[in-house]
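Dear colleagues,

For the upcoming journal club I promised to circulate an example of a predicted protein-ligand complex. I picked one with iron/sulfur cluster because it came up in last month's discussion. The inputs are reproduced below in full, followed by the predicted structure.
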Amino acid sequence: MPGPRNNGEDLRLHSRQVKSALRRANLSDSFVVGKYSFSPYMACQHGCVYCDGRAERYYVDGDFDRDIVVRGNLPDLLGREIPRLRERGFVSIGSGISDAYQPIEAHERIMAQCAGILATQDHPVTIMTKSALALRDIDLWAQVNARSRFIFVVSLTHAADETRKVWEPGASSVDDRLEALRRFKAAGCVTGVLAMPLLPGITDTSENLKTLYARLAEIDVDFIMPGGLTLRPGRQKEYFMRHLERHRPDLVDRYHDLYREDRVSGAPRASYTAELYPRLTAHNADFRLPWLVPHRVYRNHLQVYDEVNVLLHHMVELYEARGINTRPLKAALKRYLAWLETRKAQYNRHRSWRYEDLDAELTALCRTSPRPAGDGGTTANLTAVIGNGKLAAFVSEVVLERKVLDYVTLKLEGRKDESLTGETL
Ligand code: SF4
């Protein structure tokens, strides 16, 4: 069986012109809080054995780690599209099916051009990568951070480079990734780690996690998001299992058992997930590190209605992880989204409308005393919209007083912004 290829001799580049640079979501996602996204490449020289970019659902043709699609006209389009964006929100770079700073970027320099464009704009940016090549553009990303916010997210699941050589052969070494985190942190940027996918019996062990978290805590990263491995039936699972047989034959039976249900999502048996996630959140608690992008990091960089959307989604996850009943919260979130999507559809249709006015609508709803009809205000209030008075009071504190939810203590903190903006991270 051929080993993963990562650099050089048998690389095949495929140039592709794209029609637009940015994908846009109606609301920010709750994972890395991205609203806009782009990817300069498709497929990935890093060749991680577990990469789900190999799964059929992503339609990546050819050999995943050597047939690389290059979107060379992307910077030109980005330069035209960014100034036209009407809503605040993070531009998120990096996807499950390519790494923007994979080795070919050293030659193509598409990201260097994109960083130069984004450094002249006021949009916050998040990058997820396994490559220390991002350091080449650190001055530009620091400029983005000075104007709005830059979040540097490294994907790292282990502290031993021997593990990296087997499972992520083309990615930067562990030490280089840690050094990149250190330098972005020193440059004043927010730093986070995607500690996923953790491989059962290989990187999900308490021993590995303790060492990894300790090294990341030394760097003072702002969050660590851990997660388990999914193996989608088909190319991804077959490729992974071939490598497992070669490198860890002792684990083959266990993986067959964990992934025997062949779920479309690639999820393992529920009993494994039920054991894993409490263990992961306990590691975060031990190091007092949030396992989601913290509220204080994103809150001033989204439209207020979108901040509330992300916050409520995060609260569902945070409270569920503590075993708290989230049914009332989910019901209120559903009603909030129904209201928001209806109102937002109007703003999306009318290009002359300003999304700041939708923020103002939410602010008006948050005021406890209904404003009289006829003054341009509304007689409704947030309690009526979401059907939950306690949560409405909480959201009102966030919206009106700009309070911040601490994701570790789950306490609402601070009055007014100044002491809680990025400078104190
Ligand atoms: S770096 Fe990301 S996209 Fe690239 S192979 Fe690894 S998991 Fe896949």
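Two points we might discuss: The radius of gyration is 22 Å. Residues 327-349 form the longest helix (23 residues).

See you all on Thursday,
B. R.
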